[in-house]
Amino acid sequence: MMPGADDLTALWITLKLAALTTLILLLLGTPLAWWLARSRWRGRFLVEAVVALPLVLPPTVLGFYLLVALGPHGPLGGLMRALGGEPLAFTFNGLVIGSVIYSLPFVVQPLQAAFSAIGARPLEVAATLGASPLDRFVTVALPQARAGFVTAAVLGFAHTLGEFGVVLMIGGNIPGRTQVISIAIYDHVEALEYGQAHWLSGGLLLLSFLLLMGVYALNRRFSVARP
Amino acid sequence: MSVEIDLRLSRGAFRLQVDARLPGQGISAVFGPSGCGKTSLLRAIAGLEPAAQGDLRVNGELWQGAGRFLPPHRRAVGYVFQQPSLFDHLGVRGNLEYGLRRVPVARRRVTLEQAVELMGIGHLLHRRAQNLSGGEQQRVAIARALAVSPSLLLLDEPLAALDEPRKQAILPCLQDLHRELGIPVLYVSHTRSELVRLADRLLLLDQGRVQALGPLDELFARLDLPLAQAPDSAAVIEARMVARDERYGLNRLQFSGGLLEVAGDALPVGETRRLQVLARDVSVTLEQPRQTSILNVFPALIEEQVGHGSAQVMLRLRLGDSRLLSRVTRKSAETLGLQPGRRVYAQVKSVALVA
Questions:
Q1: Do B89 and A132 touch (CB under 8 A)?
Q2: B47 neighbourhood in chain A, CB within 8 Å
Q3: Strand B258-263 relative to strand B250-255: parallel, antiparallel, unpaired?
Q4: Distance of alpha carbon B257 from its chain centroid, rounded?
Q5: Closest Cα of chain A to B101: distance in Å?
Q6: Contact A128 B145 (CB under 8 A)
Q7: Is the pTM of this model over 0.90?
Q8: What distance in Å separates the CA atoms of residue B237 and residue B282, rounded to the nearest whole number?
Q9: Domains and CATH numbers, chain B
Q10: Residues whose CB is less than 8 angstroms from the CB of residue A218 and which lie 6 or more positions away in sequence, other chains included
């Protein structure tokens, strides 16, 4: 059996969710990772632990707290309602918020490692050559951390792609609105529609493999700089 | 034109406290044992140590003091680190232009071409930074620092990571750059041969404090400084080439104490060269030696004398306006009755041309 229209919609929602999540994470994660890599604040480990939490928490635990927060009586959902919007639970926007939190370490950690690996010296050199702090960040730190950015973007994207537990908790499973591909596969298996499940699973497997292959190929090229 | 330093910096148990005024030209070497604060001093001058307190004025411009702290990117400083630290995401040309592009056109005094030519790296411009050898990388790093037209060039042991042939290849470039560009240079080193070759002036540091500051030849001949206590302690004199003796392959060089005959390739007449005379190569006699294989014998006055270990004595001799060191055994010194004020003859066994 070939995948149906609902499956294609689920694929589209999944890709949209992953792309949006990755974009937001790169924008938020870059300054956070830079700060974590450069800060000498003694309490830094607290922030690092919070960032790493989604790695170890069961997705259902994270999803449960998000459901409570995003629901009509939760702080974020209530705020949205007070502003005249719809509550965030069971919406695509809610999924984006959940995914951003869920995939946070997959973006922040490679970026932090890449920034740390640069060390202080290239930035000091840039300073003595007349570059202001922002200038140094843009012209030295960002280009020297580019391999970290590729890794972070692909890991963030791929990890969001495979998300299941958190989405199920806060998005429900509304076909056409919040049903993502991993949940569509689950539904097909439940309904003993193994043909569709094969198509979607195989597709996801191939996509993930191609993405990761791309990262490793790019990183190999990046280790040799441009002339 | 001068560099006025009055800086303090504490890091853990280490305290740096340097109060020194250097002229705004020539090469001043910062010399001292490891951990004496040489690198910290340079970093503080460049503004890389935000915790540094005190005043710093370079060529009349206040870099630090009176509640003001100019950040490093606002100081007209060229800094070369011990490791070349080229940007590996840029090519050689990209590295050279990085600083240059950030200098306002009106303030540019050194062109990229000048910097490239001085360091002899024209053939490297299109190469990738990380494909260069260590020596080539350091040349590019020095040219990159020059290209920002600095008011002060800080070199932190730029040759330390290089092997001897590469060192010898870069040293003439460093001599040229200070002659051609007239930029004052602070040069950190713990290699005496580099000092003798390059420095006009020494700033001796010991445990974060200034031990002595003055012309190189004066400090080398001071018996109270650790320089004279080293096994290879030497005096440095300047001499002018006056004539060539082709028959014996000797150069005749005039210095204030007399005429030196030095074996070696012919030098251009009229040129002034720096000579190094090791203390162990100078012996003294009370009477003028008549039949000796040593060519260079000069009347001299013992100015000062200190013990050197248990068996030896270090003498400082004055010949005209020049000073030589002589290391003799304590037994000889007592037998000959050597003491300050005594007139002797200095026999110079060997002289090295250094620059």
A1: no
A2: 127
A3: antiparallel
A4: 24
A5: 9
A6: yes
A7: no
A8: 14
A9: 2-220 (3.40.50.300), 234-353 (2.40.50.100)
A10: A147, A150
Query: Using CA atoms, how far apart are residues A127 and B273, in angstroms rounded to an integer?
Result: 38
For residue A225, the SS3 value is: coil
* pLDDT tens for each residue of A36-80: 999 889 999 999 999 999 999 998 899 999 888 888 888 887 888
B295 and chain A in contact, CB less than 8 A: no
pLDDT value at position A93? 87
Closest residue to B85, CB basis, from A122, A130, A132: A122
More confident residue, A140 or B25: A140
Q: Which residues of B touch A126 (CB under 8 A)?
A: 73, 87, 98
Q: Amino acid identity of B181?
A: L
Specify the amino acid at residue B212.
A
Query: Residue B262 phi/psi, 5° resolution?
Result: -125, 125
Residue in the structure block whose two tokens are 């529609």:
A193
Residue B215, CB half-sphere, CA atoms under 13 Å: how many?
Answer: 9
Judge: A130–B88 Cβ closer than 8 Å, yes or no: no
For residue A5, with 0-12 CB atoms within 10 Å meaning exposed, 13-18 middle and 19 or more buried, which class applies?
Answer: exposed
Q: How many residue pairs from chains A and B have C-beta atoms closer than 8 A?
A: 77
More confident residue, B272 or A24: A24
Contact between A128 and B79 using a beta-carbon 8 Å cutoff: yes
Query: Which ipTM did the prediction report?
Result: 0.86
Sign of CA dihedral B45, B47, B48, B52: positive
- Residue B129 · residue B91 · CB < 8 Å: yes
Token code pair at residue B101? 């592009």
Grouping H, G, I as helix, E, B as strand and the rest as coil, residue B82 is coil
A86 to chain B, closest Cα gap in Å: 47
